[in-house]
Amino acid sequence: MKRKDFLWLISLSAIILLLAYLSTTGILKKLTDSNPYLMGFVKVSILATMGEILAIRISSGYYQKPTGLFYRFMVWGFLGMCFVIAFELFNSGVIAATEKHLLPKASGSPFFSKLSIAFFTSTFMNLIFAPTFMAFHRITDTYIDLGEGKLNKIFKVKLIDVTNKIDWNSFISFVVLKTIPFFWIPAHTITFMLPGEFRVLTAAFLSIALGTILAFAKRKGKQN
């Protein structure tokens, strides 16, 4: 393990320990309830950016500062705020639809009832919201790349150049049609089984997990 790998793990461990302390003391729930959008920004921007850096390390074999790191950080933060409202909209919507018998309600133990709500929430959110958010993120990343991470150049990039640069076939065939049903729906089903203050946070950790998996696959493809 290289020194930078150790520093990355130390940083992640410190964040996990801090979150554990805030959770056990009830501070995390209070902060999330009183400042949901701010906490969504902080949680996702930090963890997802760390995941992006780790993915580069795995796929390339060394650490490299992503192009336009600050702007990527801000985009992740904005998406974290979007997760806050999207999670609530879909979860509350599924609960309301279940109560109106528009969706099947699991009978029996409270666990299966909660699991049913979590599964439907994850399914609808990932089928409706996820493709839009993923496409938006792909577009913003491409703007940053084509603008070489410099704000004055980013504003000069044309949308047609961005859309032509993106491999939409790969986006649809892999990101949408494979990661959504086989990773995100099952993963977010677990997410919606958790208390509200942990959901956006878990989504951020999941982005690290998926980024790591994809980076290993990319590295293996290069080796082959």
TrEMBL record:
The keyword Membrane applies. The chain crosses the membrane at residues 38-58, 70-91, 111-129, 166-186, 198-217. Keywords: Membrane, Transmembrane, Transmembrane helix. This is Membrane protein. It comes from Fervidicella metallireducens AeB.
